[in-house]
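Sequence and structure are kept together here, with a separate record for every protein. An example record follows, reproduced without changes.
>
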Amino acid sequence: MSHSFIRVLALSLVFLGGAGGFAANVPDIARAVDDHYNVLKSFKASFTEVYTAPGVSRTESGTVWLKKPGRMRWEYRDPRQKLFLMDSQNAYFYVQGDSQARRTSVKKLDDIRSPMRFLLGKSKLVKELEALSLAPDVIPLQKGNVVLRGVPKGMQDRISSVVLEISSTSQLVRIVIFGADGATTDFRFSQIEENVPVQDGLFRFSPPAGVETIHDEQVSQ
């Protein structure tokens, strides 16, 4: 499963991540999530991404911005500077110091069409995540948070489940994506800011001097 797809899915789910005060059952929680996040226009947060797979483990961190419709920017700072950027038409990936940056059409960026429904802000959580339920077996990062589990519709061949941790302040603080291949990608968000001013220029890719932008069928780290 491509890491670019995982990032898109994670940020898509961010817009479905707060419940405005927890209700007693999953349908009520999901309804509150829809009401709050379908009107969200922009998002900024610090993130930590922990990826594990058989024989592989890495932790990275940085800052992420998202602005509707369909624009996002992941700036990785540690342990290596790199950029994943998506505008309304193309996705780009560049590692600091490389001589080339890669570009692909958003339409060809793995199966981006399903996550894009989240970005467009017209989704219903109970329809987008099958078998949505509470996950009492998952210990939340902070006491008082609620944890939900579901499977993105149409992605069962690649994703076995997704865990969402929602804070009491109506913010998504963690997304854990369990791949059907045994890989796990754990996103943790902090210093979250919603509906902050975000300039459109932040989502335009400008390669450093001397760096060539090449077309690729897929961009991922």
Q: What stands out?
A: Residues 3-215 form a domain with the outer membrane lipoprotein receptor (LolB), chain A fold (CATH 2.50.20.10). Residues 3-14 form the longest helix (12 residues). The helical segments are 3-14, 26-37, 113-119, 125-128.
